[in-house]
């Protein structure tokens, strides 16, 4: 069960090698979280991640999960929920893709969309239903500031996150009043292995900062969290910039 | 289990009178009490004392099955009312943190209660828990994805023995209702917490204490016997001194649903309190005064300013008193010495902005509260609500903490661990926790309930807004200090304890778990508290 500050005792991370996912798990383990499920494609990296969390005192289990195989989600996730209540699901999987290459290779672009959006639709719905049956729990979905307005520089990734973001908001409304809390997290540029070698945009942040923002959002039962918080204001402005101008902005 | 004096296989109504004119069989407890000679001297109102039978059921249509018939119900019961359809409701404790959703069942008869328990244990069901008026601060009376059995529909006072001072009533009766009925007969509830809006069942389940703990112990000490609906659908009569009684008193509803209880009452001559007030300049002064003087008063409590720092740390206002004897009343009041009237102000609106109770507002309040108290005043006459339940005058006062709610932190440490208490008060004062309802008390002898909270020593309770950043880690630190000193936190108020510390705090936890495993192997009775702490 979550405590009075929204901190979960059991956590399921979809995308078990995600740096933000692991930073969040570490942060929550120092508070109340004792049981962690890391769901991801079986790999040495997944086992290393599990070992890392075990060392700081959590009971960690891994489960094979492939975002690109929605057909298997029901069975995989059903097994996890059958083992006991999950207080929080963190949907943290996603790929950035390579915009230039993906534009030339539509199938690669589709893969980005299928991972970030289609995979999340199936996993999100399954977890939402399971949480509703439990009568409690949080579904935290990592969206992105890139989903707020499509940019020339990464519109394939951005559009997949836009879809995910809209889906999550709708799911949150659908689950309102059922005891399930759905929270959209919109980080800006996060310094991680996913973005290594890329040029930073202003207001860049870190996985640890995102983890802190998630903990605060759980305490406040927020529906939307921006990391850093200033992005909320910046994006409120940028959203309304006319396209001919927006196109030329160096963002 | 030696407690089982009844093993009827099917649910049935207890052998209690069922209507206003029911014949004297008021259950074995009351019968024997009436036989006890020499204890009837305190009954002051002869006209009503001689019948010994009072049925106080309000004449409304509660038995018709329509739930909305009772306006009091809507006012006292506390749910996160989100307008969600039918009986699926979002439920929180009084602190309004950690809402979860459950099916709300409101039985109006013992049979319906038994049906509800059977439903809780059905295949695929997630269990359930009984709930009274929702005054437990944390998650003790909620059960995510399961059922919450609202017992306030079972609220009959079956019989009052006005000679011996014994009442037999349903578990859903509130202490408020008991006071309304019993005071005119010259009797008062044996123990009352800071609110009258708790049910008898809740009072036993949490084994509540009051300002008279140093002399009278906790609520269960005054319970002669109770009837418990257990997971198998059987109603058992549970007598004092049996393991099942000790597991149930303070057992947070996890042994079963309490249906009825027979209570011993406190005789009073008037409905007024004779109160002495004094100020203590700091914590040491306060503890010295409490230690030196508590035995002279039936009721004793200290309000403590936890925002005061330095030399003023722990400055407080002490109020102590007893029920006023008839001759202490002015002549006019003597005509109706047992009148009990309460006033309720309008409730705060459902949505209050966050952060209303910050350091500045609470600091100001504390300053005014301390200065306004007399340095010393003796023999002041106060009404029962003013002395015992000042906050009951404002329905839904918990809303002033805003959407994220508040936590109440209450712990106890034994005598000889005053140093730990001092440390904790200092930590709180240094941390500048905005708490305007901090209360310090001295506990007397504990009672045998396995998970009963009071231990002989000291207890401090404080409210803190849950939105305060870093509060979780800070309270964890205090828990550590409490556990180190052999103390414990109060489960009826808890919403955040680390499960690892529970065993150290409650040494009889293993017995409790063993009895529960035997009595309720499928965990038909499950609450968010029991899941969170693996009770």
UniProtKB/TrEMBL annotation, chain A:
Transmembrane segments: none annotated. One of its GO terms (molecular function) is oxidoreductase activity. Keywords: Oxidoreductase. InterPro entries: NAD(P)-bd_dom_sf, Sc_DH/Rdtase_CS, SDR_fam. Belongs to the short-chain dehydrogenases/reductases (SDR) family. PANTHER family: 5-KETO-D-GLUCONATE 5-REDUCTASE, DECAPRENYLPHOSPHORYL-2-KETO-BETA-D-ERYTHRO-PENTOSE REDUCTASE. This is Decaprenylphospho-beta-D-erythro-pentofuranosid-2-ulose 2-reductase. It comes from Streptomyces tsukubensis.
């Amino acid at each position: 069960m979550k405590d009075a500050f929204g901190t979960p005792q059991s956590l399921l991370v979809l995308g078990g090698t995600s740096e933000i996912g692991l930073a969040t798990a570490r942060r929550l383990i120092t508070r109340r979280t004792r049981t962690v499920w890391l769901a991801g494609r079986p790999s040495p990296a997944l086992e290393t991640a599990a070992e890392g969390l075990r060392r700081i005192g959590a009971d960690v289990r891994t489960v094979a999960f492939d975002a690109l195989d929605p057909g298997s989600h029901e069975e995989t996730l059903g097994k996890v929920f059958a083992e006991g209540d999950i207080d929080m699901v963190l949907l943290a999987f996603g790929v950035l893709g390579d915009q230039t290459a993906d534009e030339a290779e539509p199938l690669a672009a589709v893969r980005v969309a299928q991972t970030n959006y289609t995979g999340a639709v199936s996993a999100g719905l399954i977890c939402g239903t399971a949480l509703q049956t439990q009568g409690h729990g949080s579904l935290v979905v990592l969206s992105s500031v890139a989903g707020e307005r499509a940019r020339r520089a990464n519109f394939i990734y951005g559009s997949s996150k836009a879809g995910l973001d809209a889906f999550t908001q709708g799911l949150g409304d659908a689950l309102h009043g059922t005891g399930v809390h759905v929270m959209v997290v919109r980080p800006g540029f996060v310094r991680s292995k996913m973005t290594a070698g890329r040029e930073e945009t202003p207001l860049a942040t870190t996985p640890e900062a995102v983890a802190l923002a998630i903990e605060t959002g759980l305490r406040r039962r927020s529906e939307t969290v921006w990391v850093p918080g200033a992005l909320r204001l910046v994006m409120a402005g940028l959203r309304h910039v006319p396209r001919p101008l927006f196109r030329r902005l160096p963002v | 289990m030696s407690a089982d004096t009844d093993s009827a296989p099917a649910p049935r109504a207890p052998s209690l009178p069922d209507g206003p004119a029911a014949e004297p069989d008021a259950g074995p407890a009351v019968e024997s009490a009436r036989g006890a000679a020499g204890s009837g001297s305190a009954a002051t109102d002869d006209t009503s004392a001689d019948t010994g039978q009072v049925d106080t059921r309000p004449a409304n249509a509660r038995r018709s099955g329509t739930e909305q018939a009772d306006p009091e119900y809507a006012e006292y019961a506390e749910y996160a009312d989100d307008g969600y359809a039918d009986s699926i409701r979002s439920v929180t404790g009084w602190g309004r943190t950690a809402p979860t959703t459950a099916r709300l069942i409101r039985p109006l008869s013992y049979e319906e209660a038994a049906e509800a328990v059977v439903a809780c244990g059905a295949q695929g069901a997630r269990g359930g828990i009984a709930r009274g008026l929702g005054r437990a601060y944390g998650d003790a009376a909620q059960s995510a994805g399961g059922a919450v059995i609202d017992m306030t529909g079972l609220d009959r006072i079956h019989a009052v023995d006005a000679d011996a001072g014994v009442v037999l009533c349903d578990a859903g009766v509130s202490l408020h209702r008991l006071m309304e009925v019993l005071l005119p007969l010259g009797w008062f509830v044996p123990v009352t917490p800071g609110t009258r809006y708790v049910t008898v069942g809740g009072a036993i389940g949490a084994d509540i204490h009051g300002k008279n703990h140093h002399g009278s112990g906790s609520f269960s000490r005054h319970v002669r016997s109770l009837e418990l609906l257990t997971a198998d659908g059987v109603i058992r009569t549970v007598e004092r001194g049996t393991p099942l009684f000790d597991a149930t008193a303070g057992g947070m509803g996890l042994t079963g649903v309490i249906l009825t209880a027979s209570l011993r009452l406190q005789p009073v001559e008037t409905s007024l309190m004779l109160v002495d007030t004094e100020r203590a300049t700091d914590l040491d002064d306060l503890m010295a005064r409490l230690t030196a003087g508590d035995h002279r008063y039936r009721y004793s409590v200290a309000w403590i300013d936890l925002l005061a720092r330095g030399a003023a740390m722990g400055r407080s206002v002490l109020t102590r008193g007893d029920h006023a004897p008839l001759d202490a009343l002015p002549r006019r009041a003597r005509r109706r010495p047992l009148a009990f009237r309460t006033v309720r102000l309008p409730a705060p609106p459902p949505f209050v902005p966050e952060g209303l109770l910050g350091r500045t507002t609470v600091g100001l309040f504390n300053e005014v509260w301390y200065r306004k108290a007399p340095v010393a005043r003796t023999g002041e006459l106060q009404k029962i609500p003013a002395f015992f339940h000042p906050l009951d005058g404002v329905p839904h006062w918990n809303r002033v903490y805003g959407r994220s709610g508040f936590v109440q932190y209450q712990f106890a440490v034994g005598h000889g661990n005053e140093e730990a208490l001092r440390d904790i008060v200092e930590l709180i004062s240094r941390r500048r926790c905005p708490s305007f309802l901090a209360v310090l008390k001295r506990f007397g002898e504990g009672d045998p309930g396995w998970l009963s909270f009071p231990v002989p020593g000291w207890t401090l309770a404080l409210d803190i807004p849950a939105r305060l950043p870093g509060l979780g880690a800070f309270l964890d630190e205090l828990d550590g200090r409490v556990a180190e000193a052999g103390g414990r936190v109060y489960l009826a108020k808890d919403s955040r304890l680390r499960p690892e510390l529970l065993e150290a705090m409650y040494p009889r936890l293993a017995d409790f778990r063993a009895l529960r495993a035997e009595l309720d192997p499928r965990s038909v009775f499950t609450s968010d508290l029991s899941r969170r702490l693996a009770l």
